[in-house]
Design a protein that fits this description.
By secondary structure, the protein is mainly α. The protein folds into 2 domains: 103 residues, Rna Polymerase Sigma Factor, Chain: A (Orthogonal Bundle), CATH 1.10.1740; 85 residues, Winged helix-like DNA-binding domain superfamily/Winged helix DNA-binding domain (Arc Repressor Mutant, subunit A), CATH 1.10.10.10. It has 11 helices and no strands. One of its GO terms (biological process) is DNA-templated transcription initiation.
């Protein structure tokens, strides 16, 4: 068994393990079979890509780094025997890759001074203590909200997205869909009630749904397009 990359990421992986690989898929992965790779990729690619996006702020760079991380994972597939260690490795590798990338960008932009070993270490600690923690929490929260929204009934989901993704007013939506504004408001209430139920086991995600303003909710959910 591969030892946890570090305690922090192992504990994160253990805490957020709602998604489960089928035993056959995990075995196939450890044996280097294509179906095992595909299963792990489908389960975690969007999650890790969103995490790196929150660290870097660039979808293009996050896609490149995430792809490299999965290539590394697949090359050492035989070292993994548990799903927890797979997820811990992905998050730890993502964090390290993002820090390396940010350092390179900062070096290119720095003309008058270079990073000493000490400053580099301080920078890494700052990223680990603040940015990484927030990015992990938001990744888990947004993934659950996104999946809950995608699970709404068709019309309900369409109206919810027009309200919160696009920021449209009920009257505008009613005109576009040839329905009444009251129908729009009714579908909105129905969507929020369904989301309350579906997110009841994630208090942070539930708090976002219950308390966010239109602008704030749009900011979060537009970011969730990374999962699409």
């Amino acid at each position: 068994m591969l030892a946890p990359t570090n305690e922090t990421f192992y504990n994160v992986a253990l805490l957020f393990m709602k998604e489960q690989l089928e035993p056959d898929d995990l075995l196939a992965f450890t044996q280097g079979k294509e179906e095992g790779f595909i299963a792990v990729y489908k389960l975690y690619y969007q999650e890790i890509r969103y995490f790196t996006f929150k660290m870097l702020g660039s979808k293009e760079e996050s896609e490149d780094i995430t792809t490299e991380i999965f290539l590394k994972l697949f090359k050492i597939h035989e070292r993994f025997t548990t799903q927890v260690n797979i997820k811990a490795f992905l998050y730890a590798s993502a964090k390290n890759s993002c820090i390396d990338h940010i350092r390179k960008v900062k070096r290119r932009k720095t003309i008058k001074k270079d990073f000493s070993d000490t400053s580099t270490g301080e920078f890494a600690n700052e990223i680990e203590d603040v940015t990484v923690e927030h990015a992990i929490i938001e990744t888990v929260m947004i993934k659950e909200i996104y999946e809950a929204v995608e699970g709404l009934p068709d019309k309900c989901r369409q109206i919810f997205k027009m309200l919160y993704y696009e920021g449209l007013k009920p009257d505008v939506i009613a005109h576009q869909l040839s329905i009444t504004p009251e129908t729009v408001r009714s579908q909105k209430r129905h969507a929020l009630e369904l989301l309350r139920v579906r997110l009841s086991d994630n208090q942070m995600a539930l708090a976002v749904i219950l308390t966010l303003s239109l602008l704030e909710c749009g900011q979060y959910l537009n970011a969730a397009d990374t999962f699409a």
